[in-house]
Amino acid sequence: MKIAVLPGDGIGPEIVTQALRVLDVFRQEGLRIEIEEAPLGGAAYDQYGMPYPPFTQQVCQAADAILLGAVGGPQYDKLDRPMRPERGLLAIRRDLGLFANLRPALVFPELENASTLKAEVVRGLDIMIIREQIGDVYFGQPRGMRMNDSGEREAFNTMVYSESEIRRIAHFAFGVAATRSRKKLCSVDKANVLETTEFWREIFTDVSRDYPQVELSHMYIDNAAMQLVRNPRQFDVIATGNLFGDILSDEASMLTGSIGMLATASLSESKKGLYEPGHGSAPEIAGKNIANPLAAILSVAMMLRYSFDNLDAANRIEQAVRRVLAKGYRTADIFEPGSEKVSCSGMGDRVLEEL
Ligand code: NAD
To answer: Residues 131, 266: contact at Cβ < 8 Å?
Structure first.
């Protein structure tokens, strides 16, 4: 297993250190793991003058999977746009063809009071949002500003999906739904208004014939946004395009109330994946050893599951995290009276003990 490790900026390096300690447990047990580190984002700008330098590109292209901390920080906010850390992230996604973004929204029983929704609404929540990530209105051409016929300035973007792009993400989503116990897939669109998503619905319906074990449903985006806060447990897997997925995945992550707990994966057709926490670089707490490393640790579990088909190792990590929470250990962001506060590295220690 060749893994590129990109610690990034802010709390990235400290949470990635804890994630690597977890990976090392499996190396000691005999898994063959090769790790190469490279800078991305602000760290890469500092070292190479660009957010996704050729060295990092080469390390990522040669790897089977990539573990990323987070990028960004206030010191980089005044740079020209192409040099900003977040551009490094967009560049790597496009460069490696990471078309499928998976974002689990899981409520751990011990953290159900962290949600802004009532505990009984989110109890046991386990949703997987699958977002197509390299198409749609974010990449569609033409785009830009122009003068219209009445001499007024206007701005425009193009919402476009080709059949092969929709089929690719549909097969991926059905494949994920088929591995889950409820086997339900809800495709989200706006087929009543937008031709692009009417086509999306047609293709999803067609692909569903190959997956008779998966129950497909369709929902309009406005209703899905509402149902996610009204009754989120009705969902198992949600699949949608880039624009709708951007919004729904953030909404779903808030249902859990704890951004420091959620891992994400971005996958290519060859199963090469980029795994990272759902949160950003939290610059205000960087270097204090108080960040929550669990999202980074759970990113390693996702990596083992989706890029290396090692379900056993992935389950062991997830169970270790659950046991640590059940024993009452909390970093500052999820601390509640009555629990025991631990540091970033202290949380890493607890997870290693459980493993
Ligand atoms: P953020 O996710 O970094 O922080 C939001 C809030 O959550 C802050 O209060 C932060 O302290 C807290 N938080 C986040 N992760 C935490 C953790 N692991 N443990 C404890 N607390 C945690 O979002 P932001 O403040 O909007 O952005 C900060 C920087 O991160 C910006 O430069 C932004 O561009 C960047 N960013 C990067 C990514 C990425 O790398 N994928 C994603 C989002 C934001």
So the answer is: no
Task: Let me know if 9 is a catalytic residue.
Answer: no
Residues 155-178 have a mean pLDDT of 97
Of 267, 301, 317, the residue at which a domain comes to its end is 267
Catalytic-residue membership of 333: no
Q: Which position has the higher pLDDT, 236 or 334?
A: 236
How many C-beta neighbours within 10 Å does residue 171 have?
15
Rounded to a whole number, what is the largest CA-CA distance in the chain? 70
Q: Residue 197's domain spans which residues?
A: 101-267
Q: Is 250 a catalytic site residue? A: yes
Residues 106 and 82 placed together within one structural domain of the fold: no
Distance 196 CA to ligand 1 centre (A): 33
Q: Provide the domain count of the chain.
A: 2
Of the candidates 250, 288, 309, 327, the residue annotated as catalytic is 250
Residue of 64, 126, 138, 184 marked active site: 138
Mean pLDDT of the 145-151 span: 96
Total-model pTM: 0.90
> Of 12-21, 103-112, 183-192, 216-225, which gets the smallest average pLDDT?
103-112
pLDDT exceeds 90 at position 114: no
Peptide bond preceding 277 in cis form (omega within 30 of 0) = no
Last residue in a domain, options 250, 267, 284: 267
Asked if residue 159 and residue 304 are part of one domain, the reply reads no
How far, in Å, is the centroid of ligand 1 from the Cα of 346?
21
- Asked whether 66 and 273 are in contact (CB, 8 A), the reply is yes
Give Rg (Cα) of the chain: 20
Same domain as 106, residue 95:
no
* Ligand 1 contact, 284 CB (< 6 A): yes
For residues 77 and 112, state if they share a domain. no
Whichever domain contains 85, its CATH number is 3.40.718.10
| 71, 166: one domain | no
Distance 284 CA to ligand 1 centre (A): 9
CB 188 within 8 A of CB 227: no
What is the CA(332)–ligand 1 centre distance, in A? 15
| Pair (184, 254) in one structural domain | yes
- Give residue 258's pLDDT: 78
Residues 105 and 254 in one domain: yes
SS3 187: strand
Instruction: Determine if ligand 1 sits within 6 Å of the CB of residue 296.
Output: no
